[in-house]
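Lay summary

Proteins are chains of building blocks that fold into shapes. Our project writes down both the chain and a compact code for its shape. Here are two examples, one after the other.
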Amino acid sequence: MVKTNVETVEDSRTKLTVTVEAGKVDEAIKAAFKKLAKEVRIPGFRPGKAPRKMLEQALGSDYVLSQAAEDLINDTYALALDQEGLRVMGEAKFEDPEDLAEGKDFTYSVVVDTRPTFGLSSTDIEIKMPPRETTEAEINAQIEDSRERLAGLEPVEDRAVEADDFVMISFTSTLDGEDYEGSSIDKYMYELGRGYMPQEFEEALIGANPGEQVVAEFAVEDTGANTEYAGKTLHFDIDVHEIKKKVLPEVNDDFAVSAGFENLEDMRKEIKEYIESQKQQSYDRVMDERLVSELADKLEGEAPEALVESRKASMKREFENMLKERDIEFDQYLAMSQIDAEQYDADLSTQAHIATTNDLALEALAAAQKLEATEDDIAAEFVEIADALKMSVEAARAKWQEFGLNTSLKDEVARKKALAWLRENAKVTIDEEAM
């Protein structure tokens, strides 16, 4: 334990003063000499065996004391924050500490930005969820997906091109009257209605018959990814060779067999079991995510950048550790995910902002409903922590005390209680149309 004092500097800035008793100071100085004795080679002495006076002569006592002071600050800063229940963010600004001296208390001060507390515009939360049990509509949707995958194409000879047709086409094109790379295509089966080409291109095809040539011309829109072409005119001369329409298989036993099932009854049964299995694994998680997301929309404040950046750094470390455990290099992950480092960083920033906002919202709800961590709550948490880390409860408590993690544990318990309150008090409407 250390002696602490807190004073408010500004609304969100706090000055924390920490005093370490003389006995701990002497221990730190001895530890610093012992550590340096192993690192510094003194002629005539084995590593770790050089007398203190020899080390002081070689290094200077000020250097050793500064190392001891640095170690003391590192060892006591988190503990002091925890004692005062300070929730900090961003970079701490340490003031120049007083000189360290044997037999005397040591005092240092640090100015920190404290984590904000926000209110909520309302605690009335409403969400929609699909039924927990599998519905006929969900089974039918899966069957329709299978029909789409197993669909065939049949030639059309008695009409012109319609929306959603497949059309065998060839074309030549120009950009502002000039050829460009990829400006000509020969015998390509194009599917209308998918948005692969601009609307003007598809509109030119509709109504055309095989053997006809149609023209499409339009200005290229600026989508942010094609700035060099934006505003220029694309001209297409399109030859229509053949029209085909998609034919979905009839839903019967033959269709089920082609999809890998014994018959249609077996197909519906297995699809139902699969959906139920997926729901069992994810239903409660999805409901929690929707509840917290709705709550976050009612947060009266914006997550500070420093808090988001801290969360982002933590998420990045956790993810990189996970990759390391699986023997996957970061570049390998990017390649497998088909994204670049810039997109990964942008996605991580978004996730960190959402996670931080959600935490602030749950903390606001906990404060509004006076949901605090009790001694029994903390005791239960340490039982779980000890079990996960394969250590005794007493050892787990000592570790959390040493690293100043008790405040964060209390916050985590309060957020869990807030989520439990949401589950019990929010209005959840079951809607078969909800996804």
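And here is the second example, written the same way.
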Amino acid sequence: MLISIAVDFRRADVATREQFHLSEERLTQLYRTARSEVVTEAALIATCNRTELYAWVESEDIDEVDKAIQTLARRWMRTRVNGDQLLRTATRRYGADAARHVVRVASGLESAVLGDGQILGQLRAAYKRAAHSGATGPLLHRLFETALRSGKRVQTETSLLAGRNSIGAEAASIAHQRFGSLTNARCLVVGAGKTGERTARQLIKLGAQDIVLMNRTMARAEELAEIIGGRAAPMETMHAEAAMADIVIVATASEQPILLADTLRRTREACGTSAYSLLLMDLSLPRNIEPAVLELPGVALVDLDTLHTPILAAEEQRRNAVPHAERICNEEVDDFLEWAAARPARDAIRPLADALTEVARREVAFASKDDAVAERTATRIVAKLLAGPMAALRRAVQRGEPLDQHTMMLLEMFAPARPSDLRAPARRSSAKRVDARRSPNARAEQAVTAPMRDQRYVSVSAEV
């Protein structure tokens, strides 16, 4: 059964969400310990507005599934107490609901900014990270492939991404609204990743002419500064640049605050700017600006929670595209569920398909003398030959029938005969008889049907 444990902006504020954020080191540890006999695949999505863990549990028993969820939560948070706290905050989803949710996330339908243009890249990067760790398998691969394809279709086939559709662009717009004009405002953007770049580009579009860019890697800050016509500065000068700025927008991957209240206060006093207004905008999770900056005179702070309300107003122009986007999501989810439901049938027929493919390959290769042609032709022949039996097995799975009898019948009908099978059996004494269960054909039957005797393989389609 597919499950997900999700903490997002709809149920948790930024202070709560950052408690469940995972650093790279902790994510590596989670992937190292997440898999077990019951949990066979896992992948975690982390963005500024959500952290969600998806996993495949090889059981449909609700008690076993809940036990697996509790174990995953504790491994996520490293202690039982913190794991239980996570589960009190998180939303749990099962089966088709979990599949539908991740597809909607990839399509921008579950973002703080409807049609968020960054979510697709973030999802792709998160899945790549999980795959490289070895924590994923065929089911999550197919699920995320479906989600990414759905997101791409929504981008190209609908107008859901019309207008501003990222946290960075919305932040720049809010800064413009508060100042009225950005022409004479000095803007400092800390972080030159995708969010920082979108922020800087939107500031330029809105009339900003004095933009200072900072990044952990100076070369990246210089590259972006050249593109937009701004100025790059080293991170060591951040508090000094912030003291001289009118607008500071921070969007980095730091695990702790980098803009500190006390340091900023002292720097503003030294620069003689304590009496001037300063707008700070924190687009990071965990937060990169100390909340205590609000105690400084003239300082206003906007974080991800504050951004959510004005973002809702900007969504109106994209709402007309939602029904079309949802139809795309539903189509992709239905395709995934159909594929997942057929998994027991594919598992059951695979040994037979492999055996027939080997026979077909040898025979075609004998005639063509071309291995590549033999491979392609053999695969096509077997696919056409087994299309009917595969459909019959899928129907049996849908009816909830065990596949043992079906697969044994297919083996009798399609398994290639061996020379030993064609010779008349010699007369043997009862003491020398071979147990029928150990005959070649019987062993092949066991290879086909053994996995299906576990009812988990038969009934998985009921949930996903």
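What can we say about the second shape? The CA atoms of residues 266 and 463 lie 59 Å apart.
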